[in-house]
Amino acid sequence: MNETIFLEELKELVALESFSRDAVGTGKVAAWIKKRLDAAAWRTKLISVGKEVGPILRAEWGKGKTYDVLLLGHMDTVFPAGTAVERPFSTEGDDFKGPGASDMKCGDLFMVHLAEDLAREKSSGHVLLLFTPDEEISSVYSRPVIEGEARKAKAVLIMESARPNGDLVKERKGISKYRLIFEGIAAHAGVNPDQGASAVHECMRWGQQIVGLANPQKGTTVNIGTIMGGTAANVVADHCECVIDARVKDEAEGHRIDEALRAWAKTPFDDRVKVMVEGGMKRPPMNPSEKTEALCRKAEEAAKKVGLSFGWTKSGGGSDGNLTAALGISTIDGLGPIGGKAHSVDEYGKISSIMPRYAFVKALIDSLL
């Protein structure tokens, strides 16, 4: 692999738009990658996980009951169709840019080149690659496949971009998402307000309770992201909804929040308002086990061999590493090129990091095989 070819290929991948809910778009990315892996004699398979999203691309090298290593990448982005036309792939100084370039098509492309190198070397190891279509929507469709394959892996490498300072990730918070629905009774705000039961008022009274579920000492955060309800100032609102995001380091904290919301729904402030709670924990916390710590040391040793060094960081954002780590599988994250400002118009990756980071991850995989 060389830097110029990598950037040309990344430009092609970024142009293949793949918003999570765009099954056709993610399917095109899967087809592009599959063609490359088929040519390298990997055993590939497209796995349908429903009509809402594109397929998972599964690629296997070698044989055995367990995988020496499982590499995970996601093909979807948060950007709707048309974004790559408005903001196409580009380079500026040491940065490469474009929707999804850093999060995480550069990591997907690392996986492609690693696969080709292993094939060229006729590796005797047993390796599985999974390219998923729905990581940006919490892997709701891919999760059973990811977990099923991860249970057979000795180690899992998540190919998301490294942090802006070059650090890798070994710890992430768990994520819970909720939609609260308040159903009240409509009435005229001036003529007969007493005959109404305001869904908006109920939601507002819940607000302080919800925010109070946060626990900074335990790393638990709670955010009310959106509130929607009511029709006019002179109408007692009969409907309101709010969406909540909670992040937890300890899974028990997630259960505490869930139990509180469901208990409160049974005893609203105004008993004429019905409250429904939808959602729950989407990703468990990713906390490093002893086996993960051992994998971290192995990664550091591989980095030294190629003259690279980095630190380890914690992240409040989730990845598919949350799912595999929760199963007790040694998992580390951030093995792609250095990047930052994901999900924004300023998303970037560092060109100068491509070759050193690739050499590092190849050395790590060689050590695992």
Automatic annotation (TrEMBL):
Single GO MF descriptor: hydrolase activity
Transmembrane segments: none
Swiss-Prot/TrEMBL cofactor(s): Zn(2+)
Gene3D superfamilies: 3.30.70.360, Zn peptidases
Keyword list, A-Z: Hydrolase, Metal-binding, Zinc
Domain of life of the source: Bacteria
UniProt-annotated catalytic positions: D76, E135 (proton acceptor)
Domain Peptidase M20 dimerisation intervals: 171-269
PANTHER family xrefs: ACETYLORNITHINE DEACETYLASE, BLL0789 PROTEIN
Protein name as catalogued: Acetylornithine deacetylase
Upper classification of the organism: Bacteria, Bacillati, Bacillota, Negativicutes, Acidaminococcales
